Sequence to fold (329 residues):
Amino acid sequence: MAEVFHHEPVLAAEIVGMLVRRPGIYIDGTLGGGGHSCAMAEALERLGFIADSLIIGIDQDDAALRAASEKLSHWKEHTVLVKGNFGDIETIFRKVCSERDLRPEAAGILLDLGVSSYQIDSAPRGFSYLREGPLDMRMDRDAAVTAADIVNTRGEKELARIFFRYGEEQRSRSIAKAIVAYRERVGPIRGTGELAGIVRDLARGGENVIKMLSRIFQALRIEVNSELDVLRDALLQGIGCLGEHGRMAVISYHSLEDRIVKNLFAEHAKSDWGPKGVGLREPLVRASVSLVNRKPLLAGSEETERNPRARSAKLRIIEKNPKGGCREC
Ligand SMILES: C[S@@+](CC[C@H](N)C(=O)[O-])C[C@H]1O[C@@H](n2cnc3c(N)ncnc32)[C@H](O)[C@@H]1O
Fold:
């Protein structure tokens, strides 16, 4: 039976309005089912830019690439879909540009972080405590390490660190201890339900079990896919790929991601004016980007009612400055 890929793109109108402003190369680093890419292609067509534009879609999940290729079939000539990690965004971008003899300067980049609704809702992928499935959680199914490997082989201290760092879970130590005790008593933990059961048994009366489960599953997912490790690097590479006035938009869904995006954007939006009191008229080093929005854009009530996933979304956008990062120019 054909897979049904369902995922409603978040803040799609805002992305299109703020990113698509001229013909050029657009990189969708988190292609998913192609919802945002499709909206961008429609806008490029409507504005008469499509003939001189290319969308490079990247995803590490084969199922996403299959779904997106179907969704974007109308714009086949103007899209290139690549299986890969956005941690390699610059290499992928430069390779596609050199194969097509294009100047490697992107007009827009989008990163819509995390997992898609399809991945979460697909029981065999093992992302959700609400669905019985193997403890897998790999976005890239060719990757070596699954959530089961982590839960069954890491020591108590290491598990506690993962739950605290990536789930901000206050009871990280007790949960890690319960997991290790269960492994010794019963054997390896194989399924999502089995892990959820251990967490549930530990929850005190009145404690919000659902929130606890969300935090533990989020922490494991982040660890399995090294999500935060590649993000900072991808943002830096992304800034390097942008042409003058090119924009990068990032949608994050939890505070750990948003903090990385916010801090890195702020760092690069600052010019270096040298030591205080020197009174230079021009900065020593110009800021490489400007913040398009100082505060993150959030979805409106109409969208969050229709698509609960949009509730936690935060959109931050930067624009590459001409001569950004330039010393004395
Ligand atoms: C929130 S979904 C994107 C949905 C997409 N914007 C749409 O409209 O259909 C995130 C997608 O990014 C992919 N992904 C997450 N981290 C990635 C990474 N480091 N490299 C490549 N793809 C990644 C996931 O596999 C997933 O398909």
Summary: The pocket of S-adenosylmethionine is lined by residues 7, 9, 30, 32-36, 58-61, 64, 85-87, 112, 114-116, 139, 230 (CB under 6 Å). The chain has 13 helices and seven strands.
